[in-house]
Amino acid sequence: xxxxxxxxxxxxxxxxxxxxxxxxxxxxxxxxxxxxxxxxxxxxxxxxxxxxxxxxxxxxxxxxxxxxxxxxxxxxxxxxxxxxxxxxxxxxxxxxxxxxxxxxxxxxxxxxxxxxxxxxxxxxxxxxxxxxxxxxxxxxxxxxxxxxxxxxxxxxxxxxxxxxxxxxxxxxxxxxxxxxxxxxxxxxxxxxxxxxxxxxxxxxxxxxxxxxxxxxxxxxxxxxxxxxxxxxxxxxxxxxxxxxxxxxxxxxxxxxxxxxxxxxxxxxxxxxxxxxxxxxxxxxxxxxxxxxxxxxx
Length: 297
Hints:
The protein is α/β, with parallel strands linked by helices. The chain has a single domain (29-295), classed as TIM Barrel (Alpha-Beta Barrel), CATH 3.20.20.70. The chain has 12 helices and 8 strands. It has helices spanning 29-49, 59-65, 74-78, 83-96, 110-126, 141-151, 168-174, 181-188, 203-212, 233-244, 260-268, 278-287; strands spanning 66-68, 102-103, 132-136, 155-161, 195-200, 216-219, 250-254, 273-276. Strands 1-8-7-6-5-4-3-2 form an 8-stranded parallel sheet. The longest helix has 21 residues, at 29-49. The protein starts with 28 loop residues before the first helix and ends in a 10-residue tail after the last helix.
């Protein structure tokens, strides 16, 4: 492994208190406010539901729900020495843990291309059917159409990461756009795999996806790393999950998932996939494996 200066504080439980405002890094904006709300809300809501109300899931069921959330910027955010070197070894570790994979986008283009190449290498080992959910930044439509063509050989799903628009520095640097329902519908026409809108967190986002009707609505506030409304993805899932099921085939969610109870609760509230990033990255960088014990016990 090639760690230059690892930017996680290896807290015993990742609660968002050890990396306050550390961006680049593993933290979030506003003293990690939404990062911390994401984590705490799952336990609070589970307790509010009452003992025995949320069905317990088997190990097989938990693994069927778990997916690695898309992360790029291995150098600036994680502290890895080389961006390209990170992807293949880490993705193989995700696969060996029995967890489904996601691939993120970024600037420069090499971040996406490194991930694509890593999955193509995995296809040589695990078969051409091995694919990942790929999430693209909301670039101008012509750029996005090109990116969709790049990722099709490795994509089980293709998604637009609309919450990346709220990363002000990236938005200004590479001209990210706030996508309309019409634009989402047009992009869906270019894909032959299920289409995801990731980063649904505000009322405006909800109205947009109700009109666009993507295959998957993915509730996320970018791990609490972006400027948006105050709140947690867990509470949003509870509030709007049943309604959103009328406008999509599946609901996915991420943000602060740290244990089996959070996954069971997300499933209880209607999530088909529960995505996790920081705990997997931390376990791999410190221990060389993707630890999933906390999600199974």
